[in-house]
Amino acid sequence: MDDVNQQQEIASEDRLNMRSAGLQNRSRERVEQILAAAEALVVETGIEGLKMRELARRARLPIASLYHYFPSSSSIVRAMAIRHLDDVRAVLGRELEKVVDPSMPIDRRAYTADSLVRTVLDHLLRTPASATIWDSLRSSPELRQLDMEDTATNARALEPYLRWVAPDLREERIPMLMMVILEALQANVIVIMHSPTDMHANLIDALADMLTATLKGLQTLQA
Fold it and tell me: Locate the HTH tetR-type domain: which residues (predicted)?
């Protein structure tokens, strides 16, 4: 009898776990549905056009369902920004894995900046909402804090890359140098995203050249 009860309890727990997993999957799908609709809307209207009722209509959800997942339009903007920043970080991480080769001669390492710049900008320019989201990150006090935290996270993640490119740099200088480099890159990326399409290629070339020259210059600094 005990065995039967135990089996029934296990079966009941399995059903609950399956139901919970199903609900979690459905919730993730709904959130993605909402964020996709929100990105499409802000591309058309800007952040100021992100109204909850219009978003619910575009996402084909009851307004109550929308409020269940996001209490306000600002919470949606934040969620879009977080997803966007995570995507950029993933793109950059994959490219770093490709370019960092311990056997590469030091005098060639700075030139890997070219592929990093082009890969990230290719991703951003193929994501229609990128410019609007980056503008929000820089203009909203709340999102600016998120942007600064993301920059700090990326700077820490890129410190090994800078050590690889310029192994003679003093260790204590690397964190601040990486922060300054990233802030300069982000400012230029925003300029490129807002520039006419026919200027993109030349601007990207210039940004890649600037980063390469910066890294080559840092290689000359002695420990």
Answer: 28-88
* Each residue's pLDDT expressed in tens, for the chain with a length of 223 residues: 455 454 445 444 444 444 444 446 678 889 999 999 999 999 999 888 899 999 999 999 999 999 999 999 989 999 999 999 999 999 999 999 999 999 999 999 999 999 999 999 999 999 999 999 998 888 888 788 888 889 999 999 999 999 999 999 999 999 999 999 999 999 999 999 999 999 999 999 999 999 999 999 999 976 5
Q: Please give the C-alpha separations between residue 205 and each of 6, 26, 109, 165, 199, in angstroms, as whole numbers.
A: 67, 43, 18, 20, 10
Alpha carbon separation from 67 to 15, 75, 101 (Å, rounded): 29, 10, 48
Give dist(CA 148, CA 183) in Å, integer: 9
Count: domains in the chain: 2
For residues 63 and 103, membership in a common domain is answered with no
Q: Which amino acid is at 84?
A: H
Neighbours of 161 (CB within 10 A): 19
Spatial separation of the C-alpha atoms in residues 189 and 202, rounded to whole Å: 13
Expressed as residue numbers, the domain containing 193 is 77-223
Q: Are residues 117 and 192 in the same domain?
A: yes
C-beta of residue 125 within 8 angstroms of C-beta of residue 200: yes
Q: Report CA-CA distances (Å) from 150 to 57, 72, 123, 157, 176.
A: 32, 23, 17, 10, 15
